[in-house]
């Protein structure tokens, strides 16, 4: 699956009513904790494109003790676009496009089994450390359900990677023989 | 402070070696995950540490006393008073209700019937299954059974809980709920836990992970016999 579609997420955050760019950024960070950071500049640039395409429209301005703040609202067309996005099933892993996987392949091509194995071992340690970190996040009494669900997502993927790392460690010698017959 | 220690433990089943010289320590209140692939000796190690099996060679000591040389009766008494044991399938007594199952270790240790029932109800409440107190295992869900089994393993407030794949038979969410409660209550009463699992995400709840490979502790870097920052405290 590809990266997160920021335009669609912003449309979703506007579905409940109009919001300023600043409010959108805050709502994004609250609802998608641990997401790749979203810069204010990116919010405003995305809103600009959505407005150009008729998916959002300016819905008033205020100037309360600060710079101009334009609120944006979802248009009918925006709502249709959002609905289409939500109704589309994501292609499950259409390509095996993982740096993890590619790095082991390249290690086997340019070096030897030991190089590939030491990379796998180092990566396993890093994955395990991250898995523990996220498990701690979930156990924090202050964690919201958004935090827990976000951590769950990462934990499930790390767990799957760790299983793959383990299995590949067991296969790497045979794999090397296949790559270098 | 080290409470439980294995030194050079070797154990075979007939000609098949299961443990080939395992040395490890478990401190008071520490949660240690024992991981490794199938057949690496995890469960055998747990059975040796808990005094269920005797090593062929090596020692197991509890608070400085060598227990592997004790009689079965003495080791059994130790398991009733200081240890708790929990398996993948809770192994509740089918003829007894949840409350009777949980009260059982207390009754065996000489606690009065009324007091044992009160404690059992408290522990069932802690694990969120008070509603099945008077229900027999056959009429409970898998998650309810495992919660009862966990309550039974902790009701004597043991110094060490030995848990062998305790969430292995549960779905992810139920397993996580049981494990979270187990870890929280173990930490509250400073019960050490030896947690056997083959799942990385279950091991992540421990303070420390010991990886076994072919009957030995794996120090090669594939294993991580090191304390890691941020155990799930």
UniProtKB/TrEMBL annotation, chain A:
Q: Which InterPro entries match?
A: Tscrpt_reg_PadR_N (IPR005149), WH-like_DNA-bd_sf (IPR036388), WH_DNA-bd_sf (IPR036390)
Which superkingdom heads the taxonomic lineage of this protein's source? Answer: Bacteria
Pfam families in alphabetical order: PadR (PF03551)
Residue ranges annotated for the Transcription regulator PadR N-terminal domain, each copy included: 10-83
Q: What is this protein called?
A: Transcriptional regulator, PadR family
Q: Which organism is it from?
A: Micromonospora saelicesensis
Automatic annotation (TrEMBL), chain B:
The alphabetical list of record keywords is: ATP-binding, Nucleotide-binding, Transport
Pfam families documented for this protein: ABC_tran (PF00005)
The ABC transporter domain is annotated at 4-232
> Can you provide one Gene Ontology molecular function annotated for this UniProt record?
ATP binding
Record's GO cellular component terms: plasma membrane
Q: Which PANTHER family match?
A: ABC TRANSPORTER RELATED (PTHR24220:SF685), IMPORT ATP-BINDING PROTEIN (PTHR24220)
* Name of the protein in its database record: Polyamine-transporting ATPase
């Amino acid at each position: 699956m590809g990266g997160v579609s920021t335009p669609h997420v912003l449309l979703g955050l506007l579905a409940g009513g109009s919001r300023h760019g600043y409010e959108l950024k805050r709502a994004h960070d609250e609802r998608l904790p641990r997401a790749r950071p979203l810069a204010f500049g990116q919010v405003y640039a995305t809103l600009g494109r959505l407005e150009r395409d008729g998916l959002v429209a300016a819905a008033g301005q205020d100037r309360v003790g600060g710079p101009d703040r334009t609120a944006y609202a979802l248009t009918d067309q925006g709502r249709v676009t959002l609905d289409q996005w939500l109704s589309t099933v994501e292609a499950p892993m259409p390509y095996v496009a993982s740096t993890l996987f590619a790095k082991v392949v390249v290690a086997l091509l340019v070096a030897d089994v030991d190089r590939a194995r030491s990379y796998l071992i180092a990566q396993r340690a890093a994955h395990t450390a991250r898995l523990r970190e996220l498990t701690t996040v979930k156990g924090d009494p202050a964690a919201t359900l958004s935090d827990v669900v976000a951590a769950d997502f990462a934990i499930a993927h790390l767990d799957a990677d760790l299983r793959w790392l383990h299995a590949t460690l067991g296969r790497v010698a045979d794999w090397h023989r296949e790559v270098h017959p | 402070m080290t409470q439980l220690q294995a030194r050079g433990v070797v154990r075979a089943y007939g000609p098949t070696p299961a443990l080939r010289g395992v040395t490890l320590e478990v401190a008071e209140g520490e949660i240690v995950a024992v991981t490794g692939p199938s057949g690496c000796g995890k469960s055998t190690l747990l059975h040796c540490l808990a005094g269920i099996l005797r090593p062929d060679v090596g020692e197991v000591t509890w608070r400085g006393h060598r227990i592997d040389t004790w009689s079965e009766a003495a080791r059994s008494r130790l398991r009733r008073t200081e240890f708790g044991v929990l398996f993948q399938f809770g192994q509740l007594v089918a003829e007894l209700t949840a409350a009777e199952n949980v009260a059982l270790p207390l009754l065996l240790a000489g606690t009065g019937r009324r007091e044992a029932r009160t404690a059992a109800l408290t522990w069932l409440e802690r694990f969120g299954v008070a509603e099945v107190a008077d229900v027999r295992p056959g009429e409970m869900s898998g998650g309810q059974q495992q919660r009862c089994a966990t309550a039974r393993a902790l009701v004597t407030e043991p110094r060490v809980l030995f848990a062998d794949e305790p969430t292995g038979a549960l779905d992810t969410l139920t397993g996580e709920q049981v494990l979270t409660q187990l870890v929280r209550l173990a930490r509250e009463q400073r019960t050490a836990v030896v947690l056997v699992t083959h799942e990385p995400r279950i091991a992540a709840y421990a303070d420390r992970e010991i990886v076994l490979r072919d009957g030995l502790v794996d120090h090669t870097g594939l294993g991580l016999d090191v304390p890691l920052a941020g155990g799930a405290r």
